[in-house]
Amino acid sequence: MIVGTRALEMLSEHRTDEVVVTTMSAARVWPTVSSRPDLDLPLKGCMGKASSLGLGVALARPDVKVVVLDGDGSLLMNLGSLVTIAGQAPKNLVHVVLEGGTYDTSGGQPTPGDGVLDWAAVAKGAGYKTSASIDTEEELTKQWPSLLAAEGPVFVRIRVNSMWAFGPMPGLGDNHWQNVAATLASR
User: Fold this and answer.
1) In total, how many domains does the chain have?
2) Whose CB has fewer CB within 10 Å in the chain, the N or C terminal residue?
3) String of b and e for 105-120 (b: at least 16 CB within 10 Å)?
4) Does residue 124 sit in helix, strand or coil?
5) What is the tens place of the pLDDT at every residue in 70-104?
6) What is the phi/psi pair of residue 186, to 5°?
């Protein structure tokens, strides 16, 4: 198991110009480690929708790598997105699920299937081209660069500690979506 904040720090160390879509727990911490806030798309109060938004961005901009930082509780709210993503087969999408086993933002209730559900197998069964399951910092260090570079769709499940995210949910601020669009348009 990896401390959730440490997992995000490690992912950020390899970031270049990817668009990063976050929701719920990841959205609280990612702004503190992100090196490219101009390419961050935090979703406030959209539990389960990060994968769908990430798919839309990946399809609209096949020339840009898109990383979705999802949670196990969030993805449970929209499991159908796995099949939709696999069916569309975006080569530029990496879908990361931070599995903590609880609904952190609503009080720490256990997520259904914790300890039983094999996220990587579910994603592979849905049709993701590549699927990985990571439990330690050593595994993340070794696997993340090649997973980030791989042709997608790529699914990466990272086991993190429960109740790891602190702080308020970030707001989008004035014109945040337009600013990301402008950054992408300038390339």
Assistant:
1) 1
2) C
3) beeeeebeeeeebebb
4) helix
5) 999 999 999 999 999 999 999 999 999 999 887 77
6) -80, -5
